[in-house]
Amino acid sequence: MKNFFYLLLILNILFQSCNDKTNVKTKPNILFIMSDDHAYQAISAYDDKLIQTPNIDRIANEGILFNNACVTNSICAPSRAVILTGKHSHINGKIDNHAKFDDSQTTFPQIFQKAGYQTAMYGKLHFGNNPKGFDDFLILPGQGNYINPKFLGKEKDTIIEGYVTDIITDLTLNWFKNKRDTNKPFLMMYLHKAPHRPWWPRTDKFAEFYDKKFPEPKTLFDDYSGMGTAAKTAEMNILNHMQYMHDSKVYPSTIKEMKEVKPDIEYVDGKGTLMRPTQERFYGPYGRANKKQKEKYDVVLNKISEDFRLNWPKMNEKEKMKWKFQRYMQDYLATISSVDDNVGRVLNYLEESGLDKNTIVVYTSDQGFYLGEHGWFDKRFIYNESFKTPLIIKWPNVIEAGTTNEEMVQNLDFAQTFLEAAMIDVPDDMQGESLIPLLKGDSSEWTRDAVYYHYYEYPSVHMAKRHYGIVNKEFKLVHFYYDVDEWELYDRLNDPNEINNVYNNPEYSDIVNKLTQELKEIRVKYKDSEELDKGFLY
User: Are 426 and 488 part of one and the same domain?
Assistant: First the structure.
């Protein structure tokens, strides 16, 4: 009898052990792919007017595309802090690019690591040099560089020769092939620098896209007559604020030779100081190239400068805007073409290795971006092109291939979604909502009909005023504050370009009243307040 008892005990232990291993192996892997400033308009699954992105589209074709995905704060480091913590900026403390991130707070990769996942991060984090919760990492310092970039490592720092998008992918694939523990599920954060400004493409893409012409957005020449002070005073106009050397890549020697180039470019830096562009904004990136790389870049750079020298003085302002827009699109989209190629390399490896069958693949960006809409580049505003971000997810046998979703979802929701997918308890202080019901096609379980947004970085570069607002599928109510006190309301269905503020239109008075009350309630829900607004002033 005693022996029989021991036998049962041993069998139970063995069964439990096998069961634990089975649970580990059935937990999904997660591949989180994020680019920097990737406009949804530059993904052909959303809009094919500008570029074809067949590899990113593969994720959409095999999974779900969200048409109303958005961010809580459209600027790089704060967006990443929201993603990592599952908390709004005013709660995690990373309100802008300057604020220090409190790394004593728990991030979702730390939770994954503690739960037995193997974790790794390669690419651009943007803040901090020692991300917690990762078994292995190589990250770019700050913004990083496109050409021959430096990486900060867990054990040592290193400079790797080549093009940053290719290198980040090489590092990621090397981890899959040589560092992955096959007995553990994984969380891989594969984070691209591109297409962040100043948009230096790989040499072959630089040449290829220079010969392309791109359609202009309907609002390229917006005069902001239907918008408020914030739009009228922002410093992100392509003609007046995009820099000749830094952005359009005209040789500094050409600018010097021409003596007077109009319009004169001035901008406010991150400290609120009035600045003029310097040649270092060109030579900083270009100077990282070796001799062979420079020779290839020079083929196109010579064409750009010669065209500029000969034709710029003859152009009127409208023609100059068009010229700068094309130069912007050529470089921006060229960097995206490299991202798409490299995403394809990783997807191919997952398929070849069989890992795709149990891997959640996410493609997103830290926010949207203006590609000439309202005459702008950059992001920051709650207006659609900045506020909306690409979000595409595939999960074999869970997500129905080729589906779309219209619900209001946010980067705030990522942490909770990943944790629930991995069957890991979600901390009570996270503020998002799991997307799992939507991924499974059950919209009846989704209760959110509006999202909250708050932008803080003002006065600073691009001079986008502080504002917060509430957005649902039909309307967008925004309050601009600090040195103004202005309200804007946009009818998202009837005015998709958001050029007509109808806040003071009597026909919308009921909507204003309703959304004003809902905005008050959602601020309470997320623990934001006027007191906090004042506390974050500088």
Answer: no
447 inside domain: no
**Is residue 74 within 8 Å of residue 386, measured between CB atoms?**
yes
Q: Is 404 helix (H, G, I), strand (E, B) or coil?
A: strand
Mean pLDDT of 207-233: 98
* H-assigned helices in 408-538: 414-421, 436-439, 509-525, 530-535
Average of per-residue pLDDT across 244-261: 97
**Interval 476-480 mean pLDDT:** 98
Instruction: Tell me which amino acid residue 19 is.
Output: N
pLDDT at 452: 99
Tokens 């798409």 belong to residue: 340
In a domain, 205, yes or no: yes
Say which CATH number the domain at 528 has: 3.30.1120
Clarify whether residues 123 and 199 are in a common domain.
yes
pLDDT band, residue 129 (cuts 50/70/90): confident
**pTM of structure:** 0.94
Residue 276, both tokens: 């003029």
Q: How far apart are CA 123 and CA 339, in angstroms?
A: 12
Classify strands 186-191 and 29-35 as parallel, antiparallel or unpaired: parallel
Residue 232 structural domain: 1-442
Number of domains within the chain = 2
